[in-house]
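The data are quoted verbatim here:
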Amino acid sequence: MGKKRALDYETTDPRQLEAVANPRRQDIIGRLSVSGPLSIRELAEQIGARPTALYHHVERLLGVGLVVEAGSRVRNRRREQLYETVAARIRLAKAHRDPRQSAAVANIVSAQTRQLARDFRVGQQSASRVDDGDGRNLTFFRIVGRPSPAQLARINGCFAEIIELMWEANDHDAELIALGCVLAPIGKPKPAK
């Protein structure tokens, strides 16, 4: 295998942001960051796609440096290239805060919501679906509220804790789950300048 990958990677590169504005590529990045290194065949098995449907996406992610080659192995007398993400955690926080990247980030959010809808449909058909209790692994919600500054701080603290729990979740015997969230003010828009 290659060198040990970094824990965190923060991207603001427009080429990388454009590359992740695609639901399939977001799924590939998510699965490789948790389960990698993987071959295209293994990745296709996890996603439920044909390997030929993934080559273009993996090549695109390789081309912008979000995915790297992570060695190879022989399986059934065939050499398989292995891939992993450039880091265990690929972050977009700086891009999100940069007003010049607002269109790119909006495209990423749009792609993420499409992928989340796909994830939910797969979850509805899963034999391991659990709808209630502490083991619940399938749910959805959209809540509109008016939190006070203290409540908003608490909400954001809970989000930070949940995100860290998901980053640290690496039980290889457990099933993969996807978790997504959008927090957005939906009140009056900013006045035009």
In short: The mean pLDDT is 92. The first helix runs from residue 14 to 19. The first strand starts at residue 6 and ends at 10. DSSP finds seven helices and five strands in the chain.
